[in-house]
Design a protein that fits this description.
The complex is a heterodimer of chains A (about 110) and B (about 120). In chain A, about 0% of the residues lie in helices and about 50% in strands. Chain A has no helices and eleven strands. In chain A, the strands form two sheets. In chain A, strands 2, 4, 5, 6, 9, 10 and 11 form a seven-stranded mixed sheet that branches. Chain A has a four-stranded antiparallel sheet with strand order 1-3-8-7, with no helix packed on it. Chain A starts with a strand and ends with a strand. Chain B is mainly beta and about 120 residues long. In chain B, about 0% of the residues lie in helices and about 50% in strands. In chain B, strands 2, 5, 6, 10, 11 and 12 form a six-stranded mixed sheet that branches. In chain B, strands 3-9-8-7 form a four-stranded antiparallel sheet, with no helix packed on it. Chain B has a two-stranded antiparallel sheet with strand order 1-4. Chain B contains no helices and twelve strands. In chain B, a hairpin with a 2-residue loop joins strand 7 and strand 8. The chains are: A mainly beta (about 110), B mainly beta (about 120). At the A-B interface, strand 4, strand 5, strand 9 and strand 10 of A face strand 6, strand 10 and strand 11 of B.
Chain lengths: ~110, ~120
Amino acid sequence: NAGVTQTPKFQVLKTGQSMTLQCAQDMNHNSMYWYRQDPGMGLRLIYYSASEGTTDKGEVPNGYNVSRLNKREFSLRLESAAPSQTSVYFCASYSGSSVSNIQYFGAGTRLSVL
Amino acid sequence: AQKITQTQPGMFVQEKEAVTLDCTYDTSDPSYGLFWYKQPSSGEMIFLIYQGSYDQQNATEGRYSLNFQKARKSANLVISASQLGDSAMYFCAMRELQDSGTYKYIFGTGTRLKVLA
């Protein structure tokens, strides 16, 4: 069972470079999420998607774009990376049901922007 | 205002003893849900326990129990018989229903637990 798969696991960028973080889930979940985790800040929501074709801003969306390509995939793009975007990024998914309660997480992407 | 507050940045507990990790929350959604996640040093997020706002009884999962005091808006995690492997960061989280029909999750800043041999 793959669950939620994130690629890459590690990435180093120079200021101003762009990159896309990929996320895919194989649980047929409707809702997908992108978080960033910084020391002492917990997990902060960047963007989320209730279903294919819809996206909503979270707590810290500035500097990021997202695409819900299909039900399985939800990508996060940094158009012009900044050192403040150095963080660990987590993708998560959730079935969308009020009965099923668990949000499943990927293993994370550790991003450094120099 | 913080929606999820974890006031203990770090905690120590002796092996085999019980420990309580605090969490308070604030929401206007009547059908909210509360979660606890464990994050070991390896970095993955591990779901521990869930409490729904309408649940009458406190949730339990093995050695984990959630002390849910709705009027006080607190959802403390109790770990009984602590083990060395319980040393990790613990996050309290809340989900709120959005207009889009999906749930948004809000996390606290975490409590780092160290179990002492």
